Input
Amino acid sequence: MKVYQAIAAVQGEMARDGIGKDRRNSQQGYNFRGIDDVFNALSPLLSKHGLCILPRCIERSQVERTSAKGGALFYTTVDVEFDFVAAEDGSKHTIRVPGEAMDSADKSTNKAMSAAYKYAAMQAFCIPTEGDNDADATTHDVAPRQQPRHDPVKPEAKITDEQRQQMMDLATAKNIDAREICETGKIPSVKDLPAARFKRLMDWLAMQPKRELAPAGGQASADLDDEIPY
Output
């Protein structure tokens, strides 16, 4: 079956260069790789090795949400199958990937389809995030940190109110409550999150699937100000 030879060939070429996180999310302050980066890297290799990726949307759902500022947000989830087909003999391998996205206009379905394709490609071809990023390639000598004997240790800076609101908006969209955030972040409450760990926890939230709402009469989520012991 030529399809696996073609996948392996594309995999081998992508392993040399990878696709870095060169784009910046200005609102939440983290780097990411866009769908255009994936298309630009893969397109010539798919053509070169005679491999086609054909999408098929199995299911789509959409709900309307309200943003923190009172505007409309359309939250869309899609369930997509991708046929990897070898042009030489027509052999194929199918993978199934979910995608989800939010938009204030009419682009949430487009974004969800793009997310599904991006992660299908990243995982099917084992695309590294950077090229030649072996940690053993370089060695650094690190001097021990000098701590004055009599100076008090400064408390670690916490997240700002604006960062906390960003986390609240994202958690609300995912139906994730404060307890799960606190357990993941190993913090007593969301407001106690160290600023240095904000990006890592936001990345974790962004990758989580949307949680199912609690049954009628139950509490769907806890307030992010709740003091919840870890």
DSSP finds six helices and five strands in the chain.
